[in-house]
C-alpha cells in the first residue's frame, strides 16, 4: 500500500450511528494511503484496540448522554459548546507534533458545526461527513423554504398532506423533531439545522455515505445548491472491502458487545425465513408498544431475531415487561439479544427481512444485502428514509399506524410469505446489484473516492505546521 505521507484528523459524533460510518471512512482513507488520527469525546469513546492502525486522542468534554436530550436536540447543542475548547487544544497539539506526518485536513461529522471556526483558526482545510442520507440532508437544507411555506412546524391537521416540493414525502415524513410533538419548542432545532447546513456549505467538501444510483436526484440538487464538491463514496462498509482487497469488513466499531450466539442460532433456521428486528441505538419504545411488537412477532409464526437493547423499553432495564415464559413457549422460534453483529446477520442466508427503525446505516446495510424491510421510523431523518424505502426504491413496507400486533403480524406475513411481496424482493435484489456496481473500477463511488483523495492532496494546509522545516 503506497503511503501518502499525510495525516488526516477525523472527529466522530459520539453516537453509534455516527461512530460506525466515521470509522469506516477512516479505514477507507487509510487503505488509500493516509495515516489516521481520531479525536474523540470521552463519552462513548471507540475502542482503540480494535483499530490499532489509527492513533486515538480523547478530549475531556465532561458530557453524559441522556436519551431525551438526544431526541430533542439539547445533546447536540451541548456537544457543540462543551467540545470547543478541549477539541481546539487537542488539534493544536496534533498540528504542532513534528514527529508525525503533516496533517492535510480535518474531517468532522456535519453535526459538529462548531469545528468550522476551529479549523479556520488554524487555517486547516475541513471536510464534512454526512452520516445519513443525501435526501434527508437536502430536505434539511430546504427548511427555510419549508417554514416559509407553512409546512413547519408540523401541525397535526396537515401531517397527511403531500410536500409538493419533495414528492413522495408527506408533511409527517419531514425530518422535524420529534414527529408531531408540540411540547418541544422547535426554534432551537431549526437554528441547529441552519448551523449545520451553513457550516457544511463553508467546508472544503461534503462526504456522503451513499451512492449515485441510489440518491441521484438529491445529490444533483445538493450539487447545485452547495458551492463545494460532494463525494458520494458509499456504501462505506462495502467500500472498505473494495479498497482493502480483503474479504471481511474491518473490525467492528460497536459500542456495545455483540452477541455472537445469534449467528449460530440463525444457522439452525430455514433459508430466508427469519425476520431480523432492530430499532438501532437511540429509539425507545413504551411498554405498550414493546408488548405489541412481541405479540406481533409471536403471532406472525415466522422465526425472529430481535435486538432488545438495554434501555429500549422506556422505564425498564431489559425484558421485564415480557410475559413469563414468552420465549420458551415459542419453542426456539424466537431469539432475543442485547446487541447483534448486524452486518453478519444481514448477510446470513437465513435472514429474510429486516424490521428496522430506518436509521440510515441500517437502511444502507439492508440495501447492500438485498434484504427487504419493514419500516418503523421514530425520529428525524428516519421518516424520510422509510418513505424512500417504501415509495421510491420500493424495497419494503412501512407500518403506518403505529405499533399494533394485528397490523405487525399482517405486514410480516405479507413481506415474508405472500406472493405480492415477490416484486419487492426482486427490486431489493436489483438494488443490491447496483450497490455492488458503484464500487467496481469506474463505478460512481470508486471514481468519487479517487476524486476525494486527489482533492485532499490538492489542498494546501496553511496551518502553523506549514512552517515546519
Ligand atoms: C442514528 C439515527 O437514529 C439515524 O437515523 C441516523 O441516520 C444515524 O444516527 P441509529 O439509531 O443507531 O443511528 O441507527 P443506524 O443509523 O441504523 O445505526 C445503527 C448502527 O448500529 C448500524 O451500523 C448497525 O449495523 C449497528 N447495529 C445495530 C449493530 O451493530 N447491532 C445491533 O444490534 C443494532
From TrEMBL:
<dbReference type="Pfam" id="PF00201">
    <property type="entry name" value="UDPGT"/>
</dbReference>
<dbReference type="GO" id="GO:0080044">
    <property type="term" value="F:quercetin 7-O-glucosyltransferase activity"/>
</dbReference>
<comment type="similarity">
    <text>Belongs to the UDP-glycosyltransferase family.</text>
</comment>
<dbReference type="GO" id="GO:0080043">
    <property type="term" value="F:quercetin 3-O-glucosyltransferase activity"/>
</dbReference>
<keyword id="KW-0808">Transferase</keyword>
<protein>
    <submittedName>
        <fullName>Uncharacterized protein</fullName>
    </submittedName>
</protein>
<dbReference type="InterPro" id="IPR002213">
    <property type="entry name" value="UDP_glucos_trans"/>
</dbReference>
Amino acid at each position: 500500500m503506497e503511503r501518502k505521507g499525510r495525516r488526516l484528523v477525523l472527529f466522530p459524533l459520539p453516537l453509534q450511528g455516527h461512530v460506525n460510518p466515521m470509522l469506516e471512512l477512516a479505514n477507507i482513507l487509510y487503505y488509500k494511503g493516509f495515516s489516521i488520527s481520531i479525536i474523540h469525546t470521552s463519552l462513548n469513546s471507540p475502542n482503540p484496540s480494535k483499530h490499532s492502525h489509527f492513533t486515538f486522542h480523547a478530549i475531556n468534554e465532561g458530557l453524559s448522554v441522556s436519551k431525551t436530550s438526544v431526541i430533542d436536540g439539547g445533546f447536540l447543542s451541548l456537544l457543540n459548546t462543551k467540545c470547543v475548547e478541549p477539541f481546539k487544544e487537542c488539534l493544536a497539539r496534533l498540528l504542532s507534533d513534528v514527529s508525525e506526518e503533516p496533517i492535510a485536513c480535518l474531517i468532522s461529522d456535519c453535526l459538529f458545526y462548531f469545528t468550522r471556526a476551529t479549523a479556520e483558526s488554524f487555517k486547516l482545510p475541513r471536510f464534512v461527513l454526512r452520516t445519513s442520507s443525501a435526501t434527508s440532508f437536502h430536505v434539511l437544507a430546504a427548511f427555510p423554504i419549508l417554514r416559509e411555506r407553512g409546512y413547519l412546524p408540523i401541525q397535526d391537521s396537515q401531517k397527511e398532506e403531500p410536500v409538493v416540493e419533495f414528492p413522495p414525502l408527506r408533511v409527517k415524513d419531514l425530518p422535524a423533531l420529534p414527529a408531531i410533538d408540540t411540547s418541544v419548542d422547535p426554534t432551537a432545532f431549526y437554528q441547529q439545522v441552519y448551523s449545520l447546513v451553513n457550516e457544511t456549505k463553508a467546508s472544503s467538501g461534503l462526504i456522503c455515505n451513499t451512492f449515485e444510483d441510489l440518491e441521484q436526484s438529491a445529490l444533483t440538487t445538493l450539487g447545485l445548491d452547495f458551492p463545494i464538491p460532494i463525494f458520494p463514496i458509499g456504501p462505506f462498509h462495502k467500500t472498505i472491502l473494495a479498497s482493502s482487497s480483503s474479504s471481511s469488513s474491518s473490525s467492528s466499531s460497536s459500542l456495545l458487545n455483540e452477541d455472537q450466539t445469534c449467528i449460530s442460532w440463525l444457522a439452525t433456521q430455514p433459508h430466508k425465513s427469519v425476520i431480523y428486528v432492530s430499532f438501532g441505538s437511540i429509539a425507545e419504545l413504551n411498554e405498550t408498544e414493546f408488548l405489541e411488537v412481541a405479540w406481533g412477532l409471536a403471532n406472525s409464526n415466522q422465526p425472529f431475531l430481535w435486538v432488545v437493547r438495554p434501555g429500549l423499553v422506556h422505564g425498564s432495564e431489559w425484558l421485564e415487561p415480557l410475559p413469563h415464559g414468552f420465549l420458551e413457549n415459542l419453542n426456539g422460534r424466537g431469539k432475543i439479544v442485547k446487541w447483534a453483529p448486524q452486518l453478519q446477520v444481514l448477510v446470513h442466508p437465513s435472514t429474510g427481512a429486516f424490521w428496522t427503525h430506518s436509521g440510515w446505516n441500517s437502511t444502507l446495510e439492508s440495501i447492500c444485502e438485498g434484504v427487504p424491510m419493514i419500516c418503523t421510523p421514530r425520529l428525524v431523518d428516519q421518516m424520510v428514509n422509510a418513505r424512500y424505502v417504501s415509495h421510491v426504491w420500493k424495497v419494503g413496507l412501512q407500518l403506518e399506524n403505529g405499533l399494533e400486533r394485528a397490523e405487525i403480524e399482517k405486514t410480516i406475513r405479507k413481506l415474508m410469505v405472500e406472493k405480492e411481496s415477490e416484486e419487492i424482493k426482486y427490486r431489493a435484489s436489483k438494488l443490491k446489484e447496483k450497490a455492488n456496481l458503484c464500487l467496481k473500477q469506474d463505478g460512481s463511488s470508486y471514481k468519487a473516492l479517487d476524486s476525494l483523495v486527489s482533492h485532499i492532496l490538492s489542498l494546501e494546509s496553511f496551518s502553523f505546521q506549514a512552517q515546519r522545516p
